[in-house]
Amino acid sequence: MFAIIQIDNDVSGREFRRKMRPKYEFICKYCQRKFTKSYNLMIHERTHKSPELTFSCEVCGRGFKRQDNLKQHRCNQCIWR
Amino acid sequence: MVQRHQKNKMASEQPLKKKLRRGNSSNSADETDFIHITENGVANDLSAFHLFPANVNEDDITLNAVNLEFHGSKSVFRTSELSESDEKCIEDKTEDDRKDYPTSSCYSNAHITSCENISLQAAPNMVICTNFGKKNEQETEDLNKQQMMVDPEGEETETFHSYLVKQCLCGIPDRVLRKPFEGHQIIDENGSRLAMLSEWSTQQVLQFLSNVQLLFDVYLKQNNNGHICSQIVNICNIFVHNEHNLVEQILSLCETRDKYVNYLAAKVFSSFLIIAKTYINNEWLETIVSFLTIENTDYVKMNFALEIIKRVVEWKNVDIHVLEEPQSADVAGSSTQNVDININCVTVPYSDAESYDTSGIKGLIIKSLESKWPELINKVQYLITHNSSVEAQTCVLTFLALWESTISVKANLSVIDTKPFYAHLENFVGMLNSNLPPIIWKQLLSLFNEVLCYGSTLALQDMLPEDTCQLAHLIVRYVKDFRLLDSLPYRRSEGYTVNSFVGTIPSTQPTQSNIDKTLLQKMILLVLKSVAITIKETRSDSSDSSVGSEDYDFSHDMQLIARSIRDVLKKVDVFVKVSLEFHPETPFSKILIHLFSDQDDYMIEAMVCTLDIKTGISYQTPLAPDFIAMLNPVHSFIEFLKIVSHDAEILLDYLVSNETCFLLYLLRFLKYTRRNWDVFVSSCYEGGASRTNELDNTMTVLIRLKIQIDRLVSKNLFPYNINPVLRLLEICENLYEGNEYS
User: Fold this and answer.
1) Which segments constitute the Protein Lines C-terminal domain (chain B) (predicted)?
2) Strands A55-56 and A63-64, sheet pairing
């Protein structure tokens, strides 16, 4: 019925730790919901926060969330782009 | 320059919860932050907010006392509309009753026009051409004879307003600063005194509330930027400390029967709570939630309370608008706005996270709401089934919107705090029938869609919450066995119009559209999510079993589920084809993409659902070929690419923004493609009715997307770790190239 798992090398040790890992390791800092994969938590947490400004103007350095906003943008320094 | 010192003026109003904001505070955790500007000397000039004469001890005035004062005097809002008997009715009430009245019988028609649904009462400064308007003018005239406003609003209010528009109150003369908040002198039978807020004329109250709202808006916006004008901080602090009982007075404005005053007062009060955060008097919250369950329902008060709570729960820190240039650009003169920003403004740094962390006040208001929740649920259920008046329906709609906001992932509330709000959902599923007005259908479907937050949360979790799964099962069962789809009132009937913003509403002016597409979209998305959740739950249950012999049971269960799911999806297929008049042979993937073509977040979530249904259901279960074809994810993706004109930049924008669950979709779709490359290739060839090569078209978009992501990643500009998607794109590109040359 029962088997004793012997940890004698790195591979089985890693395997053992993987099996024994608590099921919910990743908890959302906004709503405390639980996830088993860190990437899934990251995808979920993006829902809670405003996205960062990814696209920035090379002339004035202003950031935008979307490319089309960057394209529409015209400021004093950038007017001659 | 800036000193923070303990100052608690609210005698019986201890802060409910106040975390230590800065490490240098040595006294207690309950210390209140107060900013005292000595240079300008304005903080000492609190007379700006005196609404009472000097002989009234303002600290002693409680909410009841304010109400007493308010009711005891002749109000411009009430005395004019009430008959003698009505006035007697109020006078007969005991002091204890004062908080809860007016009952609907006393205030039957005061200032509420009998107009239908959306039509609005004209603003006070508009010319009112109805009899009601004439009557109102006459009454106001009579009233002016009784109460002479000694000082009508002057230029000061406008000057104050113009300074606020410039977002800085530095340099504003004291006289001007004081004026907009000062009560108006009135002369009545008791002699000359300062009028209560509720005694001001409608226009003056509206002007006052608008200015306060603008003040709060500027505060919150500057708080978000990290620096607030010191004068604005001073004035807001006076409000927060409630030094002149303005808070109670604003709260008591809900007694007025003027839609505009009510709306603005609720707006101002919710902004006040967001600024004050946990530094508030618990009695205020108790007063608000008590409006929800008054025995003789007062719809105006109930809606007032629901609006306040909803706005606090929904509050998100303001983003800088896309079109708004930073201050430096304005100074440089590039701005087209006529507003000069005061460069000499003395600002106070307010950039610590706590200064804009609203989780405390959100938690408090949710707790207060929770105590009334079961009672409120009963009341709303009764209203839905027994009261079709506009006032009752407005309350029902606001209540459902509040419920949706409370459980929304975007509200950033703890799932533990919101657990009690998941309890009564099932009662409302049974209410979805053809007798229910379309506008309430829509709100209920929105609520259920928010509970089944598949793309943002549930699709990513291994174990799903039980109450959520029960709702999904119920929806599936109602579609399968109780013809839920057939009772959806998506077709406009006589006397209704489909408003693209509100939905189907009663109106004598019908629009061209005969179909409420939003209602269809919400219904279909809900069914797809329910199906996906049902399958996911069955799979995760089985993955828990460690004993091999249960595999047979699982397979058997899955076959049964697959059969009923097929039944449900066939119903959805037929229903959408009939309602949107598609050819009966049109593929399901195509009708889905077209149904959601103007609502990208729904469309992408629906795509995640069908992909997960396909991968979940075909796991260990042989499916009928027509069912496999119906759910083919590659066909959906090809249709989707047509909608976005095969533009990789649009896909990149979807990935970077968080408005849709495209990241999750793309990740799962690419994993599916990698695992089923042959299916992907063959589907591409059979997908297009035209003879275009969909494989090349699709792969060109994906390769362009990969190049764009690569470029951003190499510059360290991608906002999160996109590597898993990037790796899958590379693998698919390799498979494509290998495929091409083989």
Assistant:
1) 698-734
2) antiparallel
Q: Measured between alpha carbons, how far is B602 from B618 in angstroms, rounded to an integer?
A: 24
d(CA B735, CA B504): 50
- A42 lies within 8 A of chain B by CB: yes
When pLDDT is averaged across residues B459-476 and rounded to a whole number, the result is 94
pLDDT digits (tens, 9 = 90+) for A57-74: 777 777 776 677 777 776
Cβ <8 Å between B658 and A46: yes
Average pLDDT over chain B, rounded to an integer: 75
ipTM confidence score: 0.74
Q: Is the peptide bond before B102 cis (omega within 30 degrees of 0)?
A: yes
CB contact under 8 A, A47 and B457: yes
Looking from the CA of B319 toward its CB, the CA atoms found within 13 Å total: 11
Rounded to a whole number of angstroms, the distance from the CA of A13 to the nearest CA of chain B is 21
Q: Which residues of A touch B724 (CB under 8 A)?
A: 39
Write the DSSP assignment of B132-190 as a string of letters.
HHHHHHHHHHHHHHHSEESS---HHHHHHHHHHHTT--TT--HHHHHGGGSPPEEEETT
Interchain contact A64–B (C-beta under 8 A): yes
Identify from B409, B660, B712 which residue to disrupt to test chain A contact, counting A C-beta atoms within 10 A and taking the largest count.
B409
The residue of A33, A41, A60, A69 whose CB has the most chain B CBs within 10 angstroms, and thus the best one to mutate to test that interface, is: A33
